[in-house]
Amino acid sequence: MLFLRTAARRCRGLAAPRCLPVGHSASTSTATYVQGQSPEPRIREYFYYIDHQGQLFLDDTKVKNFVTCFKDKPFLVFFFSRLRSNRSGRYEEDFPFLSPCGRERNFVRCDDRPVVFTHLLQSPAGSPGITADRELLSYCGGAEKLSAPFRPEALYMHPDSGRLYHPCSERAGGGGVGLVRSALAIELSPFFVYAPERDQSGQPTHFHWGGRKHTLTNVLAGCFPTAEETSGQQDGLG
């Protein structure tokens, strides 16, 4: 993957927010690294960041926008298909995810979740295990190569942040939870149904899709800490 990078090998002390659940302030700690550093023979280490739009950057990119993010689809599929929790013993606090590539260690941190769903697609004919008329949520620029079957009943709106989430494969990282990027969440928002007495001020109860009224299961609610747990985490960090 080296030819796809424009990393400058310069040392810097980085204030790296840890990847905490949405709705809670990320603490900062200093992780010092050099892009392309070699902590042991024939091993190279690189450091990346995923924003809440699902865009991938070299972590030390100063201006992070559509111009500076990685856009090559084969690279993104390769990178995200190998993403997993960081259990390497290195940078685990500041870069909770790792995408290994041969002798390269690609450490990853994120704004919210490493999987960010960006588009709703019709599954192409011949997709293994998926009927041709089933919809897919694709993530992080990989189109149908990086996708999960769309499950309308499993959409979860976080009660504090209002951000929208959907299940993803445990292998994709993020504890089986993917963030729905804001532009796609806005497209889906007219199909949510709220309790009459709450208008649109609380969590939705149903989702109209495909000619059906789906009862929202809120199955992902247990993947987020309670207010009490969050308070304890922040007290401990202070």
List the helices and strands and how they pair.
Layout: E1 11-17, E2 28-34, E3 44-50, E4 56-58, H1 73-81, E5 84-85, E6 97-101, E7 104-110, E8 116-122, E9 135-139, E10 147-149, E11 156-157, E12 164-167, E13 177-180, H2 182-188, E14 192-193, E15 206-209, E16 212-215, H3 227-237
Parallel strand pairs: 3-7, 8-13
Antiparallel strand pairs: 1-2, 3-4, 5-6, 6-7, 8-9, 9-10, 11-12, 12-13, 14-15, 15-16
> What amount of the residues lies in strands?
25-35%
Percent of residues in helical segments? Answer: 10-25%
Distance between the termini: 39 Å
Structural class: mainly beta
State Rg.
19 Å
Give the number of DSSP strands.
16
H/E topology pattern? EEEEHEEEEEEEEEHEEEH
Largest sheet: 6 strands, mixed
Report on the structure:
It is a single chain. By secondary structure, the chain is mostly beta strands. 11% of the residues lie in helices and 31% in strands. The chain contains three helices and 16 strands. The chain has helices at residues 73-81, 182-188, 227-237, and strands at 11-17, 28-34, 44-50, 56-58, 84-85, 97-101, 104-110, 116-122, 135-139, 147-149, 156-157, 164-167, 177-180, 192-193, 206-209, 212-215. The strands form four sheets. The protein has a six-stranded mixed β-sheet with strand order 10-9-8-13-12-11. The chain has a five-stranded mixed β-sheet with strand order 4-3-7-6-5, covered by helices on one side. A hairpin with a 5-residue loop joins strand 3 and strand 4 (56-58). The chain is elongated, with a radius of gyration of 19 Å. Mean pLDDT is 82; it is low at 2-29, 127-132 and 229-238.
